């Protein structure tokens, strides 16, 4: 075992090799830019409005972004493999209708309905991954098609009706607990835990390394013994599972199953991923960056609202931010070459 | 080389590979001796690539026998050749550009932390991977500022060095290099040739596929000339001129049992300016 897992090594020290200092590494981190932008935005809104920097408001921001944030985790994984998922919002909407309707009609117990919703969403992800890798087809086209499939299924299955009067377990994650003087929802904790879990998996496991390698060059990954199509289908499936969890968070937040939900969430999740410094060309970025990206969107929306700016200007500013972020990505890639 | 009488590390006899009506390998032989740099040369379409693919497991031959360390062996795929200690440096390098050097050296073969962190949490042992990668670099005298640099920040020659170091780190029998100097400038090519020499001096035999005749003559201990799907000659660069080797490659000359050359195509030989010895 040692012979195959460890190359034979010599004990010559190599004085010329130095690891960069912590400061230098922080400065060159791709998440540094987004973090600075987030902190500047927070500072700006703290000065211009009195309500911004209160526990209640910050908790509200996290609640507002938790659904898109959870979608963005899946989106990040897929974009890291140089793919893209346009179907995430529609898949989530279908998952939420499956969970809500099954549980409300009492055909299955609430927990079984939740499990079924998660499986359906993971299944959509797996199907996306299989079409992208096995046929193979461009991710943009596959997920555009799947967006329509999931959207139509949502409306067919729900018969265009909002599902209300849901059983308790479906909205449990919307319950709050006090932390100091602030109320925090359990759903926010779930989202944060998922971010930490995926951040760990990407940065500190072989699986994570392989995801980055796949995004860099599928051919290089294959030549180094990575089973690329299994890996890619796995990534899309995990992303689908994230959309299922997002569906549950959505229900817990709104208290209903709404067939109209999530229609712009695919673009919002891509926005968050890009603002967080992840490259649309694959192979570089992180979910922690995406977490910052999600917060940037949330902070801008919330802060501008508190300042009394009309919501259409929030959309305008988000759009400009995305173009800026992609420009920075493109320029830094050109420099790297 | 003094090793001419020892068992070849990697040997093939009568390899055949057909694709429909096309015979890519037509009864090819191959011999790689311990501690040598064996150059494999041949015109485009001579079947070099198919031969190398058969020897590194990327292609399964229809007929013939491959022996590793004297024992018959069959590779089911590139992974099985790698498991037997045959590493390949690909022409396009097969590196992940945005990942750091240490991650590239260990790509697909990451080391995990000992104990529960490794088994239950699957945590990578980044420190050990960096250390070992540094040792391999030092071993081959590859000077790089930092192993946490992304590969994309390196020059072409440095990237090639990383790819070679990765192959040498894992190879236990043979390192195969496909056109390692093709994309490099003069100075960087020289550095890579030096690197190949150091790999050989560690005792690791190298199969070098190259189009560059001066490089081949500079570094190879022996030259395998491939023509029409089989080995046309196996010679020492000191015994022949570059023009003669090119003539063998193109079929103007052929080599008899005693090592002398025979004019096979007098017109072509005249055009190439060579004659039989």
From TrEMBL, chain A:
What name appears for this protein in its UniProt entry? Ribose transport system permease RbsC
**What's one GO-annotated cellular component?**
plasma membrane
> Keyword DNA damage on this protein?
no
Which CDD domains does the record cross-reference, listed alphabetically? Answer: TM_PBP1_transp_AraH_like (cd06579)
Source organism, top-level taxon: Bacteria
Record key words, sorted: Cell inner membrane, Cell membrane, Membrane, Transmembrane, Transmembrane helix, Transport
Any single GO molecular-function term of the entry would be: transmembrane transporter activity
Cellular compartments annotated: Cell membrane
Signal peptide residues are none
Membrane-protein topology: Multi-pass membrane protein
Name of one Pfam family that matches: BPD_transp_2
Species of origin? Streptomyces himastatinicus ATCC 53653
Q: Which PANTHER family match?
A: ABC TRANSPORTER PERMEASE PROTEIN YPHD-RELATED (PTHR32196:SF21), ABC TRANSPORTER PERMEASE PROTEIN YPHD-RELATED-RELATED (PTHR32196)
Main location as per UniProt: membrane
**Where are the bilayer-spanning segments?**
34-53, 73-99, 111-131, 137-157, 184-202, 231-251, 272-300, 306-328
Automatic annotation (TrEMBL), chain B:
Q: Does the keyword Magnesium apply?
A: no
- What InterPro entries does UniProt report for this protein, alphabetically? AAA+_ATPase, ABC_carbohydrate_import_ATPase, ABC_transporter-like_ATP-bd, ABC_transporter-like_CS, P-loop_NTPase
What UniProt keywords apply to this chain's record, in alphabetical order?
ATP-binding, Nucleotide-binding
Q: From the UniProt record, which GO molecular function terms apply?
A: ATP binding; ATP hydrolysis activity
CDD domains membership = ABC_Carb_Monos_I
User: Any signal peptide, and if so, which residues?
Assistant: none
Pfam families on file: ABC_tran
Enumerate the SMART domains for this protein.
AAA
User: What domain of life does the UniProt record list for this protein's source?
Assistant: Bacteria
Domain ABC transporter, residue spans: 10-253
Name of protein: ABC transporter, ATP-binding protein
Organism expressing this protein natively: Streptomyces himastatinicus ATCC 53653
């Amino acid at each position: 075992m040692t012979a195959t897992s460890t190359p034979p090594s010599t004990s010559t020290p190599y004085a010329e090799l130095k690891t960069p200092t912590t400061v230098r590494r922080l400065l060159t981190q791709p998440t540094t830019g987004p973090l600075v932008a987030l902190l500047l935005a927070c500072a700006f809104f703290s000065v211009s409005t009195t309500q911004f920097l209160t526990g209640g408001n910050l908790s509200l921001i996290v609640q507002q972004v938790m659904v898109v944030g959870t979608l963005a985790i899946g989106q990040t994984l897929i974009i890291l493999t140089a793919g893209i998922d346009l179907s995430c919002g529609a898949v989530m909407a279908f998952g939420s209708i499956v969970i809500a309707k099954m549980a409300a009609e009492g055909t299955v117990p609430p927990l079984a309905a939740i499990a079924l919703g998660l499986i359906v969403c993971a299944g959509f992800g797996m199907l996306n991954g299989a079409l992208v890798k096995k046929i193979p087809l461009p991710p943009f086209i596959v997920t555009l098609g799947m967006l329509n499939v999931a959207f139509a299924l949502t409306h067919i299955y729900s018969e265009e009706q909002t599902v209300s009067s849901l059983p308790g377990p479906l909205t449990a994650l919307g319950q709050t607990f006090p932390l100091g003087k602030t109320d925090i929802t359990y759903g926010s904790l779930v989202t944060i835990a998922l971010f930490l879990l995926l951040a760990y998996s990407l940065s500190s496991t072989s699986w994570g390394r392989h995801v980055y390698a796949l995004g860099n060059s599928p051919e290089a990954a294959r030549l180094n013994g990575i089973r690329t199509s299994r890996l890619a289908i796995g990534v899309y499936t995990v992303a689908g599972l994230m959309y299922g969890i997002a569906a549950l968070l959505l229900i817990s937040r709104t208290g209903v199953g709404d067939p109209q939900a999530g229609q712009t969430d695919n673009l919002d999740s891509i926005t968050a991923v890009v603002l967080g410094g992840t490259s649309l060309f694959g192979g570089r970025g992180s979910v922690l960056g995406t977490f910052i990206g999600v917060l940037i969107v949330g902070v801008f929306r919330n802060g501008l609202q508190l300042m009394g700016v009309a919501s259409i200007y929030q959309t305008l500013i988000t759009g400009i931010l995305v173009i800026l972020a992609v420009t920075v990505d493109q320029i830094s890639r050109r420099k790297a070459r | 080389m003094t090793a001419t009488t020892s068992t070849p590390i990697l040997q093939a006899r009568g390899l055949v590979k057909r694709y429909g009506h096309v015979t890519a390998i037509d009864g090819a032989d191959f011999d790689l001796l311990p501690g040598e740099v064996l150059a494999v040369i041949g015109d485009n379409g001579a079947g070099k690539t198919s031969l190398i693919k058969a020897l590194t497991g990327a292609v399964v031959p229809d007929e013939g026998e491959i022996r590793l360390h004297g024992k018959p062996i069959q590779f089911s795929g590139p992974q099985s050749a790698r498991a037997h200690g045959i590493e390949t440096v690909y022409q396009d390098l097969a590196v992940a550009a945005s990942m750091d050097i240490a991650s590239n050296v260990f790509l697909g073969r990451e080391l995990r932390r000992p104990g529960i962190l490794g088994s239950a949490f699957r945590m990578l042992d980044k420190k050990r991977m960096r250390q070992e990668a540094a040792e391999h670099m030092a071993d081959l005298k590859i000077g790089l500022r930092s192993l946490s640099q992304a590969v994309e920040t390196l020059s072409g020659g440095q990237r090639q060095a990383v790819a070679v170091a990765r192959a040498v780190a894992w190879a236990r029998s043979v390192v195969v290099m496909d056109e390692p100097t093709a994309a490099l400038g003069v100075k960087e090519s020289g550095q890579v040739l030096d690197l190949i020499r150091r790999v050989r001096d560690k005792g690791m035999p190298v199969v070098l596929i190259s189009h560059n005749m001066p490089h081949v003559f500079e570094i190879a201990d022996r030259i395998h000339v491939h023509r029409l799907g089989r080995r046309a000659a196996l010679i020492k660069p000191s015994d022949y001129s570059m023009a003669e080797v090119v003539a063998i490659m193109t079929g103007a000359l052929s080599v008899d049992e005693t090592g002398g050359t025979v004019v096979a195509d007098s017109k072509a030989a005249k055009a190439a300016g060579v004659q039989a010895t």
